[in-house]
Amino acid sequence: MHSQPDVRLIEMIFPDAANHYGTLFGGNALALMAKAAFVAATRHAGTSVVMARSERIDFATPVRVGDMLELSARVIRTGRSSMTVEVSGFADGIGDPAPRAALSGQFEMVAVDAAGRPQRLARNKYNEGQTQ
C-alpha cells in the first residue's frame, strides 16, 4: 500500500489579493485552499473531481501582503466516490522568526465522469488498499 503524499502549494501574497487592511482577503484564501484541495483530490482519484462542500474554515492569524503562504493538502478519508481533503496553511513573512499557522479547513470532493455524475474511485498508486 502506498501512502498519500501531501500536496504543497506556495503563494506569495500580493496587494491584489488583499483587503483594505493589507491582509489576505477571505475569499481569496478560500480560493487558494480550494485549489490545494482540488490538486490533492485529483491526484488521489486519478480522474476529474468537483467540490461538494467546504467545512469549518478557520482563520487563525492574518496573512499580510508580502507573506509567503504555504498550503498543505491531503486526503484524510476516501469513500465510494468522495474524498475528504484537509488543508492547512502557514504564513511566513520576511523577518518572521518562524512560519505561523494561519488557516485550516476541510473540503469534500467528488470524483465525476465526463457528464459530471459521481463515479466510483478507481484504485491507483495513491489509494491502493483503502476502503472504497
From TrEMBL:
The coiled-coil segments of this chain are none
Q: Does the keyword Transmembrane helix apply?
A: no
Q: Which family does it belong to?
A: Belongs to the acyl coenzyme A hydrolase family.
Residue ranges constituting the HotDog ACOT-type domain according to the UniProt record: 3-115
What does the record give under GO molecular function?
long-chain fatty acyl-CoA hydrolase activity
Which superkingdom heads the taxonomic lineage of this protein's source? Bacteria
Keyword Membrane among UniProt keywords: no
The protein depicted here goes by the name Acyl-CoA thioesterase
Among the GO biological process terms of this entry, one is: fatty acid catabolic process
